Amino acid sequence: MSTHKASDASFEKDVLQSDTPVVVDFWAEWCGPCKMIGPALEEIAASLGPKAKIVKVNIDENPGVPSRYGVRGIPTLMVFKGGQVAATKVGALPKNQLQAWIEQSI
């Protein structure tokens, strides 16, 4: 499974109503650290399989959701379980640390 794009319009269906935990990556095209972790998130998404999904929200194209959840810096990763924020991580990390954080958070 790979990462998916979510928007302000699809966020409720894609994330809040999901039966499985969802990792949301708040990012932007101009953000260097966001681009650095992108490939790692793709690999992690593939390794998670059906346990969880990773969704990317471009904050420039979709300003509503990031402001609702108080996203101030990017990349910001949030784990949602049952429609609620279960964990938050701000900033880029190496793939092994990202994967460890996601796996312990889901």
Summarize the structure in words:
This protein has 106 residues and is α/β, with parallel strands linked by helices. It is built from four helices and five strands. The chain has a five-stranded mixed sheet. The chain starts with a strand and ends with a helix. The protein is 37% helix and 25% strand.
Secondary structure layout:
Blueprint: E1 4-5, H1 11-16, E2 22-27, H2 32-48, E3 53-58, H3 64-68, E4 76-81, E5 84-90, H4 95-105
Parallel strand pairs: 1-3, 2-3
Antiparallel strand pairs: 2-4, 4-5
Helix pairs in contact: 2-4
Properties at a glance:
106 residues; alpha/beta; 5-stranded mixed β-sheet; 5 strands; 37% helix
Helix segment tally:
4
Strand arrangement, major sheet: 1-3-2-4-5
Order of helices and strands: EHEHEHEEH
Poorly predicted runs are none
Helix content: 25-40%
Strand content: 25-35%
**Rg on CA atoms, Å:** 12 Å
The secondary structure category is: alpha/beta
Largest sheet: 5 strands, mixed
Oligomer: single chain
What can be said about this structure in brief?
This protein has helices at 11-16, 32-48, 64-68, 95-105; strands spanning 4-5, 22-27, 53-58, 76-81, 84-90. With 106 residues, the protein is of the alpha/beta class.
